[in-house]
Amino acid sequence: MKKARAVDVGPQVETPEFIRVAPDQSTATELQPAFMWAGRPVYRCRHCQYERVENAAAVLQHEQGHQPPARPSEILGPDGQPLQVTGDENE
Amino acid sequence: MSDAIIGTGILLKRGDGGGASENFVTFAEIVALKPPALSRNEIDVSTHNAGQEDKLLGMLRKGQVMGTLNWVPTDPTHIQILADIEANVKANYRITFPPNGLPHWTMPARVQLFEPPEVGVDTALQISFALTIDGTITKVNS
Hints:
The structure holds 2 protein chains of 2 kinds. Helix content of chain A is about 10%, strand content about 15%. Chain A is mainly beta. The longest helix of chain A has 8 residues, at about 55-65. Chain B is mainly beta. Chain B contains 1 helix and 10 strands, in the order ββββββαββββ. Chains A and B meet through strand 2 and strand 4 of A and strand 2 and helix 1 of B.
């Protein structure tokens, strides 16, 4: 039976703590009625046809689903600078 | 490759009776929607003389709009559909097709059915509804 030998895996690299930056939500803070229906305000999503009568909160919550995930350029490394993307290692 | 379109996003709207500038609002929480069937009765006019089957088609008939909603009793559109069946109100309804709301079909109709099903301990509160069309379906394609 052979003994297992240690394999050199190279220098240990400390995993940086990534800081995810939330997508810009400055446009999602206010919502004006799209139109009036039977005298009531109707709020509509700014990305699709979703709309609710007298319920801006429901539309704002729905709009959160349209927020894209953070792009690499929006992810900051431990030094506070955007990460440099060098491509997929598996390619 | 197929040009099929996924049905997600078909919507039902109700007008506010504003005439030419009528605004339509979308019913909340639409789970399923069946646009109206269009049909004509087959009228048999076969004769002994011809000795073979002969048929005419009758007048154009419009079936019901049917659907299911997750019932939110406090939602204004759900309050409206309940009020409409109680008062037998004729209003304009519009079906918009995915993905971008066109074409759309607009039709005058009355609420013929508002039916909450049996509610179990672990089920969504829903209603089934049906609209009986009373007039012409106006189709806008683009």
